[in-house]
Write a structure and sequence with these properties.
The structure holds two protein chains of two kinds. By secondary structure, chain A is an alpha/beta fold. Chain A has helices spanning 51-58, 76-81, 100-110, 117-124, 139-150, 169-184, 196-202, 220-226, 242-246, 276-285, 300-315, and strands spanning 13-22, 25-35, 40-44, 66-71, 85-88, 157-161, 188-193, 205-210, 213-218, 230-236, 251-258, 267-273, 291-297. The radius of gyration of chain A is 24 Å and the shape is elongated. The chains are: A alpha/beta, B mainly alpha. The A-B interface holds A 59-63, 80-81, 83, 85-87, 89, 91-98, 102-103, 105-107, 109-112, 146, 149-150 and B 3-4, 7, 10-11, 14-15, 78, 80-86, 88-92, 244, 246. Chain B: It is found in: Membrane.
Chain lengths: 316, 246
């Protein structure tokens, strides 16, 4: 038992030591996590990390081998029957030979707290294709219809499994604007993605999943920090004491290369630091005069690669 | 669930191929098969005219087509497309999907029975008492539930490319061997022995008993009930297995 004070609210999602194995593959391995009301959470990981299995477990489509999954303090099925969950599954097919409007109306009628079908379609941006047959839609349109089905009623939790698959850049941006409206209404939103910029731009909490285990849990900024995620680069004239450079605080890596400038003896130093301010401060303390000093944030993508590589190195 | 039944039905009624094969095709087969014999010609052993005999066969065949075809292939396809998963994200109870499929198939199977009856009465001058028409409709319609359950079981048993051939083999096998296309009394002995135990044979026999104003044989009722328990139990078991795996 942990002794840290738990927030008074019931978690929206609770995973407690959940494992799921297929044959010899551990798709989800001892996963524990809690999501709280109002959070917008990205579930981030490469293909095969266990994202879809995690969402299937969460929604009760699969049952864990060990551990427990709860939604709003009850079973996933209870939460779905109470109309508290709307989900857009990657593997969720649509009924064919019916129109978009008929399908949306069906889902509105199946929801305990439904919205008007016309409003649902307008919000999802599919009002103009309401009369089209579902099996005659483009990939991006299908995704929007699925989104409409997931938001047919006033659910407290919205689950989206790689929702922008098959969308072009502008469709993707429009989609996330729509989704933000959902989050702004106080809903909890959990989305799986391997588009790292999406997690960075939209989520206020990022869960990094790798080989079925939770590798990192924090804000996008924290995850970047965890991976040593600011890059400091500068040029130095004359000799460099590499040992002194490597002794700088908060380093995660150092590379030194010839800067190739006409001046000849100059060298370029690239440092990754988990606390760039402290590193740069200590750098000046070495009594050197760095030129062309640049400090830049790493994208979440590099942060993510660094975390998963570190994990793999640990395992091998 | 009513909303899903309505939508399933709307979709079935839009599907012209499905409507043709389940509603018109049995009536057309009836007219073709019965045209080769005179209206007074009797079927051996039964004392019925060929038209009267074939009417029950083809009405049973039509109902069988509507419920078996309507369920098996669609369920297999929709399991694969993920539609079944999508529905599990709603308040619809698990069995609601299967019930909606069966209910909409039953709505289509009723006209398929009535169209054969109409063709028999109008074109082939088949004459029965009013209670016989009603009882025939009721028995053939209710009996089709046995094959609806079989359709559901096949839909959960087979998947992808396998479901169509398997359904076709079962469908034609049961139809022909069960004596729906031609009287099983014309079969060689060994096939007659097999036919006696098929659900389609018992199914049509119930209708024929009504035509002859006889009480249906308890053996036929028992056979049909046995198959219903087998198919419905199999469907329920396969459904549960699929739900755990999905």
């Amino acid at each position: 038992m942990t002794t840290t004070a738990a927030p008074a609210t019931t978690p929206v999602v609770g995973f407690d030591q959940v494992s799921k194995t297929y044959g010899s593959v551990r798709a989800v391995d001892g996963l524990s996590l809690r999501l709280y009301p109002g959070e917008t959470v990205a579930l981030l990981g490469p293909n095969g990390a266990g994202k879809s299995t995690t969402l299937d477990l969460l929604l009760g489509l699969k049952h864990p081998d060990t551990g427990t999954v709860s939604l709003f303090g009850g079973s996933p099925r209870e939460a779905i029957v109470a109309g508290r969950v709307g989900a857009m599954l990657q593997s969720g097919g649509l009924m064919d030979e019916v129109t978009v409007e008929e399908l949306v109306k069906l889902f509105c009628s199946l929801h305990p707290k439904p919205y008007k079908a016309a409003d649902v379609m307008a919000r999802a941006g599919i009002a103009q294709i309401a009369d089209r047959k579902v099996n005659k839609l483009s990939g991006g349109q299908v995704q929007r219809v699925r989104f409409a089905l997931a938001t047919a009623g006033d659910s407290d939790l919205i689950i989206l499994d790689e929702p922008t698959t098959g969308m072009d850049v502008s469709a993707r941006q429009a989609f996330w604007a729509t989704m933000r409206e959902q989050a702004d209404q106080g809903r909890t939103v959990l989305f799986a993605t391997h588009y790292l910029e999406e997690a960075d731009a939209i989520a206020d909490r990022v869960l990094v999943l790798h080989r079925g285990r939770l590798l990192a849990d924090g804000t996008a900024a924290e995850i970047k920090a965890k991976a040593g995620s600011r890059r400091v680069s500068f040029d130095l004239e004359g000799g460099i004491d590499e040992a002194a450079l490597r002794a700088l605080p908060f380093l995660t890596s150092v590379t030194v290369s010839n800067s190739g400038s006409a001046a000849g003896s100059g060298q370029t130093v690239r440092i990754q630091s988990s606390d760039a301010d402290a590193t740069v401060h200590a750098l000046y303390g070495l009594g050197v005069y760095p030129r062309n000093l640049e400090v830049a944030g790493l994208g979440l993508e590099q942060a993510f690669v660094a975390i998963t590589e570190a994990e793999e190195a640990k395992q091998s | 669930m009513n909303a899903l039944i309505k939508l399933e039905l709307a979709r079935a009624l839009r599907n012209k191929k499905f409507l043709f094969f389940s509603v018109l095709y049995p009536a057309i087969l009836f007219l073709i098969f019965s045209s080769s014999s005179g209206s007074n010609q009797k079927v051996d052993d039964t004392g019925q005219t060929v038209a009267t005999y074939l009417m029950v066969s083809m009405a049973s065949f039509g109902a069988l087509t509507a419920v078996l075809m309507g369920n098996s292939e669609r369920i297999a396809k929709e399991r694969e497309s993920g539609w079944v998963r999508q529905l599990r994200m709603t308040t619809l109870p698990g069995r609601g999907y299967v019930l909606a499929k069966t209910a909409s198939a039953a709505v289509v199977s009723l006209p398929s029975i009535i169209v054969v009856f109409a063709a028999a009465a109008v074109i082939k001058q088949v004459r029965l008492d009013a209670w016989q028409w009603l009882a025939l409709t009721g028995v053939i319609w209710a009996g089709s539930l046995v094959f609806a359950a079989l359709g559901v079981a096949l839909g959960y048993l087979a998947s992808g490319d396998a479901v169509r051939p398997i359904t076709m083999i079962v469908y034609f096998g049961l139809s022909i061997l069960g004596g729906l296309w031609m009287p099983s009394t014309t079969f060689p002995k060994i096939l007659q022995d097999i036919a006696k135990w098929l659900p389609t044979h018992a199914y049509a026999a119930l209708g024929r008993a009504i035509e002859q104003s006889q009480a249906p044989s308890t053996t036929d009722i028992a056979i049909l009930a046995g198959y219903f328990v087998l198919f419905a139990g199999g469907a329920a078991w396969l459904y549960r297995k699929d739900t755990l795996k999905a």
